[in-house]
Design goal:
Layout (H helix, E strand, L loop, with lengths): L1 H10 L13 E2 L28 H6 L19 E3 L1 E2 L2 H13 L6 H9 L1 H12 L10 H4 L10 H13 L16 E6 L7 H7 L5 E7 L2 H9 L8 E5 L16 E7 L7 H14 E12 L4 H4 L6 E3 L2 E3 L5 E3 L3 H10 L2 E15 L4 E14 L5
Parallel strand pairs: 1-3, 4-5, 4-7, 5-6, 7-8
Antiparallel strand pairs: 2-12, 8-13, 9-10, 10-11, 12-13
Length: about 375
């Protein structure tokens, strides 16, 4: 992972990375291969640590973010390699592959997928329940804002003053978690693979976590989880693409908003208004954290003809949709909402199927954007 890569460089006395790029490990290999198998990459889990491995092997392997491929002949020695940059040949091959399958579906078909989006996601969670994704324990390395906070007294006082200066439409007793001192919202929570690790790891008595999903089935699964604690968490159904829909939280009240592989599920035309609405929920100094699919990720290259809705926007076989971002596209969305960049990185992972001698290139984008503090 990128933050671990930064730590590795620091320990070696090497200059740190820029915010816009990771240091490339160039591969003079053929165009990105597309792995075949029973689980389609269109719907494959987005676990940032790659495919799961047996615990014994996991204990012996280096920590993710510190395994770098310096000799392409050794590519099949491990299941995954970090920060692998494509060659110009591979990039062109990926662009060609996407272009070949970029003919959009008819407008009436696209409208059907948009109107039935809720139905498709409910079906997804009805079928998979909590078996599809694994708990995201990598969150606290990449996003330490989710771990217990130990703010310097000066920063805490500054945050309190800025919060007091902002007017709110809610009374302190009108919303869940009103008495909390640190509030986190995850949008697109699914079955709780982010929420429950946060609740288990962060024992801050002032913490309150909100989580919502478009799918009522997913929210029901979160609430039925034995680890769900209504005194520390509030789960609710919400369509983030409906910018007019109210959140059960006042504006300027959240410290952190988390978007993990969720913004990509929205229609591109609805993304900006959705981010604008979320930005209003943040306190001055609050941060929005995102991890999502990057342009030319293996899942994008797997799409066949007849699955494209618009440029870099596709529909999966189960009716759910996905967009593949560039760093600049995400930067434009967040900066247009009045947020300032803290981090905007590409995480390129080379996953390997050693049995079939296949290489699989995953591309994710990770961002942190902060709401500007109110001037004194």
């Amino acid at each position: 992972m990128v933050d671990r890569w930064r730590c590795f460089l620091a320990s070696c006395g090497t200059a740190t990375l820029t915010d816009h790029h990771v240091r490339p490990v160039h591969m003079n290999m053929a165009a990105p291969a597309v792995a075949a198998g029973p689980l389609s990459a269109e719907n494959m889990p987005e676990t940032a640590n790659g495919p799961t491995e047996k615990s014994a092997e996991a204990q012996k392997r280096p920590q993710f973010g510190t395994r770098f491929l310096t000799d392409p002949r050794q590519v099949f020695q491990h299941n995954a390699w970090d920060n692998v940059e494509w060659s110009a040949e591979q990039e062109l091959a990926a662009q060609k592959k996407v272009q070949e399958n970029s003919q959009p579906l008819p407008a009436e078909k696209q409208e059907e997928f948009d109107n039935r989006a809720n139905e498709y996601w409910n079906d997804f969670y009805t079928i998979h329940e909590n078996r599809f994704f694994k708990d995201r324990h990598w969150l606290f390395t990449e996003f330490p804002e989710l771990a217990p906070q130990q703010k310097p007294a000066q920063d805490a006082e500054e945050n309190r003053i800025n919060s007091e200066d902002v007017s709110s439409t809610h009374n302190d007793t009108e919303f869940p978690g009103a008495s909390a001192s640190y509030r986190i919202l995850e949008v697109g929570c699914g079955v709780g693979n982010t929420v429950f690790p946060i609740l288990k790891t962060n024992n801050d008595p002032g913490l309150f976590v909100y989580c919502c999903d478009f799918s009522s089935t997913a929210v029901d699964l979160v609430k039925s989880n034995p680890e769900y604690d209504a005194s520390r968490c509030h789960a609710f159904v919400h369509d983030m693409s409906d910018a007019s829909a109210d959140y059960p939280i006042p504006d300027h009240s959240l410290d952190v908003i988390v978007l993990i592989f969720v913004l990509s599920a929205l229609h591109p035309h609805k993304m900006q208004n959705s981010i604008n609405r979320l930005a209003r929920l943040l306190k001055p100094g609050g941060v929005l954290l995102l991890r999502d699919y990057g342009r030319y990720d293996m899942a994008q290259l797997r799409f066949k003809k007849g699955r494209c809705l618009s440029d870099n926007f596709y529909v999966r076989g189960d009716g759910t949709r996905v967009f593949f971002f560039t760093q600049d596209e995400l930067h434009d969305l967040f900066s247009s909402a009045g947020l300032e960049k803290v981090q905007n990185l590409v995480d390129r992972r080379l996953q390997v199927n050693r049995g079939k001698q296949l290489t699989m290139y995953r591309v994710w984008v990770q961002c942190k954007y902060r709401k500007v503090l109110v001037p004194p």
